[in-house]
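Workshop exercise sheet. Pairs work together: one partner reads the sequence aloud, the other fills in the structure field after running the prediction. Swap roles for the next sheet.
Pair: D.N. / O.F.
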Amino acid sequence: MQGQPTGTAPATGTEPDLAHHGDAEAAPGLVDLAVNVRRDPMPDWLADPITAALADLAGYPDPRPARAAVAARHRRPPAEVLLTAGAAEGFVLLARALTGVRRPVVVHPQFTEPEAALRAAGHQVERVLLDAADGFRLDPARVPVDADLVMIGNPTNPTSVLHPAADLAGLARPGRVLVIDEAFSDTTGVPGVDGEPESLADRRDLPGLVVVRSLTKTWGLAGLRIGYLLGEAALLERLAAAQPLWAVSTPALAAATAVASPTAVAVERAVAARLATDREHLVTRLSALPGVRVAGRPASAFVLIHRPGADRLRQLLRERGWAVRRGDTFPGLGPDWLRIAVRDPATTDAFIEILAEILEA
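Structure field:
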């Protein structure tokens, strides 16, 4: 086995609480900047098929139409799509089905469920810890060459960093499963430019690639639990064998079909463009505050900030009616980090006013 590169470390039981998520920060009466789920009203073209599906609950779910719709969106055959009860189920399936993995590596800071699922399945996980001083950008050379399972987010939660697709594609090789968590890929984009920048969802030429997608963020469907995996048919068959029968409900399948349509994709791109403007407003306002540093170049629906004493700052914000996401539960971060969801400019301005008052006190 090769030696661990700089920034690589084994996971230990004494480290951050991998089971903590942003929903634990939210509470009645608080303005929620802790959960990265869009809460705009659901359009009729999405709400109507979900509602109609409720009349067909006596029958078992049939995933074939939804799988075909998702496959068409990504220009793949249906056999290269596996529908899941949210992206989180996908990580569990990977951890349980890939029993022969010898050296799994998770690139952090990132969403903690991939590592939590691996550990729960008995895997000994190594971490590649990205450097805050380098904006949490990926250096592919830091991933051990003999790692046979590599997991990384793009854009990464909680850093909001969008890694170049070429760097990620360069990690693919025979004998390795490369898992790219693109749960927030539909939140990225540049006004006036089509498509999701740096996504590998449509790449069919990379050996061992599995792309994990979520439909809950942009469309406000966290309670419905719907996501999917994209990858080689043979590999997805192994994962499907670990999945319970009828894992995805009929209403969730209706939602998957609807949001894979050209209409939905066009709306999604418009939402991402508006989000980019709102994100820039948040970054500008945060950057003007004393002692606050915005990490890297944010590209998603949230922003990561560093400020000494951020753990105490989070508590003071709660007392003033605002919930933000703590950073110390993410490997590679600590108590001086906070994640803040991007909201509309009016909400951002109200938040910054309160935050500034606390910092000046």
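Discussion prompt: Residues 104 and 149 are 5 Å apart (CA to CA). What would you look at next?
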